[in-house]
Amino acid sequence: MLLLAACAPAVSPSPSLTESGSAQPSLVETPFGTILPSEVESSGPSPTAGPSGTAYTVRGGDTLSSISRAWGTTVQQLQDWNASSHPSLMTDPNTLVVGWILTVATDPGTTPLPTIAPTAAPTPMASGCTAAGNRVAAGGQQTFTTVPNAGHAMALTLDMGGRLEPGLDILNLLIANKVCATIFPTGAMAQTTQGRQVMALIKAHPELFEIGNHTMHHCDLVRGGGGSPTTAPCAGVTPTADFIRSELTDAATILAQLSGQQPVPYWRPPYGSVNQAVRDAAASVGYTKTFMWDIDTIDWKPISDGGPTAQQIATKVISNARDGSNVLMHLGGYETLDALRIMIPGLRDRGFLLTSLSDLLN
User: Fold this and answer.
1) Going by fewer Cβ within 10 Å, which terminus of the chain is more open, N or C?
2) pLDDT tens-digit series, residues 83-129
3) CA neighbor of 296 nearest in space, from 125, 145, 195, 136
4) Would residue 360 be called left, alpha or beta, if left means φ above 0 and alpha means ψ between -120 and 50 degrees?
């Protein structure tokens, strides 16, 4: 896969929190300063004749598989031809760097095959996913990391509890590519100016987006503390069952009003911090489906502070996805927009249906 990079301001995030034995959590997106993600335009191969063969300069979106198909060779042959100049390809063939020059043929002036042109994105009907209106009944308590018996499908889920750049661009990218997704907003962030714009876009596309409840203020419901965009409602609080119920019901009123959807029975605990007492309190107001995750993108962490690049996020998801996977991302993720540009076609190349949690459950 291709390695992309961006610049970001240096920020120190708070430590993540988790219930012992639960799926590995990710901290909520915090109101960090914004960055400009790098964008590498992808285009068809442009060969240059070399003294001993044909050379190709790596571009955005390239993989060894796509290059081998374009030039009528194999991944193994590309590795062998380029082992001396790029030895990492022998041990890490999934990582390419923009600007690398690869030998793609032993004869000078070789041209790519005419089949290199990418196929068009699926139409809405061909995408095969559904979102709002497909919600399961509350039933008994269930906690999900992956969703069993989901077939060759997976869910891209996006939390909305803090920083909201570039949330609108992310949703528009999903709309353009006909990708269903489940969004977990907090009531507090949904009420902000940017949050209302995001919620209006969700409301305008119920065929693609469904919502779950991420509580009102993003407090840690096990330990207390936390909170976004302000810590005030959470500081010094030992969450009781009544506090937990209020966090969910107060948020639900706002989310239903702004999105046109009732989030019950889906919810995601802030910071992934949950125990049985919290689940029981949530279930008492109808939130019986607790959604954790099996792939954590860590997209809330900027590159300057050791966070992942867009290519690293995409490679992690594409490589680790399995039937019923539930991917954790954030609408305010620093590299999430660029990662999705790589991730969506990469996952579809693996045959995955990208859909909502409701689709996986039905």
Assistant:
1) C
2) 999 898 888 777 888 778 899 888 887 777 654 333 333 333 346 88
3) 145
4) alpha
